[in-house]
Amino acid sequence: MLNITDKSAEDKIIPVLRLGFRPFFLFGSVYSVIAIGIWVYAFQHGQPAQLRVPALWWHVHEMFFGFAMAIVAGFLLTAVQNWTGVNGTKDKWLGVLVTLWMLPRVLLWTDVPLWLTSSIEALFLALVAYEISFRVVKAKGYRNLIFLPFFVLAIVANYASYATIKGMPPFPSIAVWQAMLWWFVLLISIMGGRVIPFFTARRFNFEKANTLLWLDAAANVPLVMLFALSFFPLTSEQVSPAIMLFAAVMQLARWLRWKPWTTLKEPLVWSLHLTYACIPSGLLIKALAELNWIPNGLFVSHNMLHVIAIGAIGGLILSMISRVTMGHTGRMIYQGPNMWLAFAAIVFAAFVRGFGVAFWPQHMLLMVDIAAALWIIAFTLFILKFGAMLLRPRADGHPG
């Protein structure tokens, strides 16, 4: 039972600060639309004069640490209340977290020293980790402390990302970017393994597939290895293709056990399955490309990162924030706005940016424009359809 007894106190909090999902889902989505628009301009016209860091670095860093990390924070700050029964972060303290997230987004366009910007970003990550961990410990739900090392690694990667601008660490920016890609894929794999089969079975009234611990380990341990190998390119070049191939097979086997073919009538469920499928498909093609079983292998391999980043990370985020917003604003989950067009757009964006550029590189500029437009359409639809829900009190009058 949640320890929320004073509804009059709850009513004094502006709705957008009543629980973590509200500001981070809304502002994270808005920021993703802005950031993709800026990146397309920079890709076509070159470095914006006001930007104080390299445009490519800014694009990757901001999509990971700006957009995606905001959604992760909002999701976990909300979920921990359900896991523990302890009131979630809200009101002024939630406002502090939102401000700490926003500041680096702005400061990268100013002359503020990078050490300060990176430290503010690290402080945001550390405080989110604290907000989650102390509730888990208080409720003795130690299983969910699994997310603490994720944030520790993210803090280290954040500092490393900034340091690469100055050429300080013995590895380039791309090492950090690849590591963070696997960081997000591992997080999605762990969370997806918990919720996707559960949501599917519950919606379509069949028994959820039993969890096979060996299969979960076989699907997830290779992702940990890929994270670590990102910082050792010579070793990675030799062993990563085999690891990715193995991970692709295990992820595919795991996904098939969730019965994706049963979900075609429900966009909020088939979108979870379709976007998750970008993980094994991206891993498979990337592995085959690095084994030179596909022509122009290195170029194809690089572009498969976008299948995973846009399709799996961006797509699963879009699906989950739609679902969570419905549930946590007191609405019937499957009676909300129809988002099938947005879900289809984000998957199409992944394939255009990944496969389109990989196999038709002569049309790269057009493909990037199309993929960006599809991303902007997808998240703009979310903002238009769900933004008001995030800014208003729950429909059922309950706190949150």
TrEMBL record:
The chain crosses the membrane at residues 21-43, 63-80, 92-108, 114-133, 145-165, 180-200, 212-232, 238-256, 268-285, 305-326, 338-360, 366-384. InterPro entries: NnrS (IPR010266). Keywords: Membrane, Transmembrane, Transmembrane helix. Pfam families: NnrS. This is Short-chain dehydrogenase. It comes from Vibrio diazotrophicus.
